[in-house]
Amino acid sequence: MLATRQLSSHHRPCRLAQTKRVPLRVQAISAPINTGAGECPLFQTRDGKIIPAMCADYGFRSGSGRLYQEGYGEVPKDVWQLAKDNYVHEFTQLRRSTRYPPADIAPPDGAVAKVLHAGGAAVARAFGALDKALEGAGVLPELAPPPVMSALETQEFKQIRAKLDKLELSVSDVIAVEHARIARTGDMASPAWVKAPFYALCFVLDVMYPKNKAIEKFWVLETVARIPYFAYISILHLYESLGFWRAGAELRKIHFAEEWNEMHHLQIMESLGGDRAWFDRFIAEHSAVFYYWVLIAFYLVSPRMAYNFMQRVELHAADTYTAFVERNRVALADIPPPLVALQYYYSDDLYLFDEFQTASRGVPGVPPRRPPCESLLDVFTNIRDDELEHVKTMVACQESTIAKDIAASSSSGGAPRHQ
Ligand SMILES: [Fe+2]
Ligand SMILES: [Fe+2]
Fold first, then answer.
1. Are strands 50-52 and 56-57 parallel, antiparallel or unpaired?
2. What are the TM regions of this chain, as residue ranges (predicted)?
3. Interval between CA 131 and ligand 2 midpoint (Å)
């Protein structure tokens, strides 16, 4: 009768309220959290407020390997077992993506995108025919069609899915927000070799994702958004190990807090179904590995330019979320927040959340940022504001003052301030 979940971690920020709603149970791939009508988790904030959470987890990984859910906090298996599990699982999904392509992909707008879309569909059809032939010849095992989810879907599950599918992200909206920002505050300066990879990244994503694939686009963006911070940490660690440079240890803490924040953005997009398509997972995960080495090279050659590049990326992320929030404000306000967002923004332990707010953390008279999280509108507004915090930190990192300021504030008992 009660919604008290078995909590597996020693540090568990979530409080699920004592209600008629039943415990969180998650099933693989876009499953409702509970199968009974009206049985959705409720979340109790630190102040005792009850907030209904989203009923379902729409992600590919729902239930396995997801933060705060089953298996959370466990030690991984060995790499061979993990790789085998993943490739076996993904191979089936790859076959399904060619034989049973998603029916909800709208044709894109631009000419280049249209050509790529048609070309991609033709390649997928050819692979689908090949797969069928190999299956007929007994080379490949018989492929079951994708599971029919309707038997599991509650009314609320379907309603929210339908609302999520209506969310839109328009490239022209993002450009308008960007132009307005530049008119207000001026453009940032970067050398051409920093601008080139940034604009290439934006162009590819804009071409690949039509406006009705907002969550998918955000998921891809957030997958790669964490990578620079991980690259910076790797190099700082290497310098410490080699004895080259030890004065940047404070930076590693900030970059880890930023990466932890981006990981929650990613998990939020996953819970909204951003990683459902095999192609999106393939692109994002392989790009992330490539991107890591690019950022490693950037940081080795010029840490300042690596931070400059990341300032551009974070500004673009903030502009994109701003445009998305403005266009979908009414729809977002009507959708409950996913559980992972509630767990993060209402956590009992906000040390890492505070750690990346380098512009205001510990400043006398400035209260710590404690944003509300009562709807998907709050969630996306919070993410946008997080990105703006990352921008400020990247600016401070280019000024080479941040580590020094933090060290000084630690010894004086205060905290750094950056504008
Ligand atoms: Fe992010
Ligand atoms: Fe970011």
1. unpaired
2. 282-302
3. 39
What is the CA(383)–ligand 1 centre distance, in A?
6
Domain boundary among the residues 123, 149, 175 is at 149
CATH code of the domain containing 277: 1.20.1260.140
Distance CA 213, CA 179 (A): 23
Q: What is the domain range of residue 103? A: 79-149
**pLDDT per residue over 306-359, tens digit each?**
999 999 999 999 999 999 999 999 999 999 999 889 989 988 778 788 888 877
Residue with the bigger pLDDT between 102 and 347: it is: 347
Q: Which residues surround ligand 1, an ion (CB under 5 A)?
A: 225, 262, 265
What is residue 84's three-state secondary structure?
A: helix
Q: What percent of the chain has pLDDT over 90?
A: 42
Specify if 68 maps to a domain: no
- The answer on 372 and 288 residing in a single domain is yes
Question: How far is ligand 1, taken at its centre, from the CA of residue 122, in Å?
Answer: 33
Query: Rounded distance, CA 36 to CA 285, Å?
Result: 35
Number of separate domains in the chain: 2
pLDDT at residue 48 greater than cutoff 50? yes
* Mean pLDDT, residues 281-291: 93
Asked if 130 and 239 sit in the same domain, the reply is no
